[in-house]
Design goal:
Elements: H1 12-31, H2 36-47, H3 53-63, H4 70-97, H5 122-136, E1 140-141, E2 147-149, H6 150-153, E3 172-173, E4 186-188, H7 194-202, E5 207-216, E6 228-238, H8 243-258, E7 264-271, E8 274-283, E9 307-316, H9 318-322, E10 335-342, H10 343-351, H11 358-361, H12 364-367
Parallel strand pairs: 1-5
Antiparallel strand pairs: 2-4, 3-4, 5-6, 6-10, 7-8, 8-9, 9-10
The chain binds phenylalanine (PHE).
Length: 371
């Protein structure tokens, strides 16, 4: 807060400087006033009869002035009082008036702010589409954790410790777990299959479930690999489930996804948790399974073969049921099938996208094409 200086020099120039400093201080203090309580302090500091700045001006400046300067000082003091009174009155008006009409004016003719509508990401859309196909066949939906234990991701799926099949799934382990038993070690799940076991631990047969989710592998990113991708897993367990149920179910699902013209073919394969196992191929929907677009041009989409490999599947291995046998899964009385498909790859095929990385760059120019 401003304190009034004593004056030694009563020359007109010195007086002008002192007056200017005083008025500048009053204005600065006035602009800091935001409410009634602050205003009262401000007003009293400058105008209180006893010891306000204006009263002090009388004593320190006017009465102290030498005779010859009295007239000059008197004129300035009068002007300065008026100025301070005006500054105080303006501050009072400002805090009691509220916002001015001008500041509340709305120009209804100005264009509005257009907020772009979001859209479902093509991965999520494809995932939902796959899930809905199975829901229509009576499947329910389950999910599981992305951070898994070695037990659920491998051991209970019949990957024995140190089994070479683990190498095909470049696993990202969480560091610093050397002291834990192997089955308790945490990793980023490499597939959605651990949720097969988690589901069977919770639910007695019969089971029909699809499991969508994100999975992780230590793959270098390129046009067809991403260290993060998505799968939809399926599991059906009941009495008398056969390989033809598996074939019929997946054939129907592929026709729903890619059109009723596509054919499916089952190719022998290997997964530790299914026996027998198969890879499913669909006839190429671009060239109609011929491998040729016309007399001279081959079909690059199916690598000229007429078939596109799409998912893994098989009959649930009895050893897998062995891990949940106490919950009603006796491999002598029940059987089941399982399948797992890559959502990213299916989305790429459906939408004609040639680089998986586009899904993860978050570039709106790519994404808004799906809006
Ligand atoms: N989990 C397997 C994979 O990620 C796919 C699969 C699921 C195969 C279910 C068979 C049965 O490669």
């Amino acid at each position: 807060m401003y304190t009034l200086p004593k004056l030694d020099d009563f020359s007109p120039a010195a007086l002008d400087r002192a007056v200017a400093a005083l008025i500048a201080a009053a204005e600065t203090e006035s602009s800091a006033v935001t409410n009634d309580a602050e205003f009262k302090i401000f007003r009293d500091h400058w105008m209180a009869r006893k010891n306000g700045i204006l009263t002090q001006v009388n004593d320190l400046w006017l009465k102290a002035a030498p005779k010859e300067a009295k007239k000059d000082v008197g004129a300035r003091v009068n002007a300065l009082k008026t100025a301070v009174e005006e500054i105080v009155a303006a501050a009072e008006k400002r805090i009691t008036a509220g916002p001015s009409l001008e500041s509340q004016r709305i120009d209804v003719t100005l264009p509005g702010i257009k907020r772009p509508l979001g859209a479902e990401h093509p991965i999520i859309r494809t995932k939902n589409e796959i899930v809905r196909i199975f829901q229509r066949m009576g499947y329910s939906v389950a999910e599981g954790p992305e951070i898994e234990t070695d037990y659920y991701n491998f051991e209970s799926l019949n990957f024995p410790p140190n089994h070479p099949a683990r190498d095909t799934q470049d696993t990202i382990f969480i560091a610093g777990q050397e002291n834990k038993p192997q089955r308790d070690r945490l990793l980023l799940r490499t597939h959605t299959s651990p949720v097969q076991i988690r589901t069977m631990e919770k639910q007695r047969p019969p089971v029909r479930v699809v499991i969508p989710g994100k999975v992780h592998r230590n793959d270098a990113a390129d046009a067809s690999h991403s260290p993060i991708f998505h799968q939809v897993e399926g599991l059906a367990v009941d009495t008398n489930i056969t390989f033809s149920d598996l074939k019929g179910t997946l054939d129907h699902a592929m026709k729903e996804l890619f059109g009723s013209d596509v054919k499916t073919r089952f190719y022998p394969s290997f997964f530790p948790f299914t026996e027998p196992s198969a890879d499913v191929q669909i006839s190429c929907f671009k060239c109609g399974g011929t491998g040729k677009l016309n007399a001279t041009e081959g079909c690059r989409l199916c690598k000229y073969s007429g078939w596109i490999e799409l998912l893994g599947c098989g009959m649930v291995d009895p050893n897998v049921f062995g891990f949940v046998e106490s919950n009603g899964y006796d491999p002598k009385t029940i059987s089941g099938f399982a399948f797992g498909m890559g959502v990213d790859r299916i989305a790429m095929l459906k939408y004609g996208i040639d680089d998986i990385q586009l899904f993860y760059h978050g570039d709106v120019r790519f994404l808004e094409q799906f809006a």
